[in-house]
């Protein structure tokens, strides 16, 4: 009888260990990004993996929240529609939180403030602010708030691009008059081309970036928000800002 009790106890312990191992298994979360937004997301020198502010931040969030990130690098428009259709669990791609986007997806708490600004060629004197953009040829990335703001400029000809690097390249080559983009994104491109590009005027919108999440996954949003709060409190977000944004 005693041996039988020991055997039963051993089985219970073994099952507990197995169940514990199962519950400790790390969940993989599919996160979309568009690695053409330096310094927030871009491909490394080998072209094999994404790097940048958002990438490191999301990896830090995942570590705090207890899941692993499976990155999917696609165009920005596909990022937004993909999360809205729950093809991806979440997205970290310098995404501005808007009421329109909230209709189709969930958002984390804001993690950085960003607004739109005008970028022109270095030495440009005819454009000093958005008031000078009337009738001009403007570039912005398809599906971004930059494109929305550009379309609000009176008589402006708006040229949408698949990525901002193409827009800034056309600007430098004189194909368009200005680019409207998120301020941190503009700083990233100017940092790489300080002899050719400059911003003019002030940031003219009040916006915040957030992590976009499939509307069905309220649990994931809660985990992300808790992790973001910890990363802000322990100084990680500030360190990432200093590493990727300061001086760009």
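^ structure tokens above, recovered residues below v
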């Amino acid at each position: 009888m005693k041996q039988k009790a020991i055997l039963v106890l051993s089985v219970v312990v073994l099952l507990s260990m197995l169940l514990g191992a199962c519950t400790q298994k790390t969940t993989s979360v599919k996160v979309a990004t568009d690695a053409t937004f330096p310094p927030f997301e871009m491909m490394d020198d080998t072209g094999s993996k994404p790097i940048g502010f958002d990438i490191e931040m999301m990896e830090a969030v995942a570590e705090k929240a207890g899941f692993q990130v499976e990155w999917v690098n696609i165009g920005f428009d596909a990022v937004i529609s993909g999360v809205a259709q729950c093809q991806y669990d979440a997205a970290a791609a310098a995404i501005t939180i808007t009421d329109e986007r909230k209709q189709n997806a969930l958002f984390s708490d804001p993690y950085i403030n960003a607004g739109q600004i005008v970028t022109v060629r270095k030495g440009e004197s005819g454009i000093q602010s958005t008031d000078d953009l009337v009738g001009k040829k403007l570039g912005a990335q398809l599906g971004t708030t930059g494109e929305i703001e550009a379309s609000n400029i009176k008589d402006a000809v708006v040229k949408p691009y698949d990525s901002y690097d193409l827009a800034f390249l056309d600007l430098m080559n004189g194909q368009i008059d200005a680019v409207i983009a998120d301020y941190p994104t503009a700083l990233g491109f100017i940092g790489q081309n300080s002899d050719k590009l400059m911003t003019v005027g002030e940031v003219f919108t009040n916006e915040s970036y957030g992590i976009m999440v499939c509307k069905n996954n309220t649990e994931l949003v809660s985990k992300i928000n808790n992790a973001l709060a910890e990363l802000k409190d322990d100084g990680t977000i500030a360190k990432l800002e200093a590493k990727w944004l300061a001086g760009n």
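The first helix runs from residue 2 to 23.
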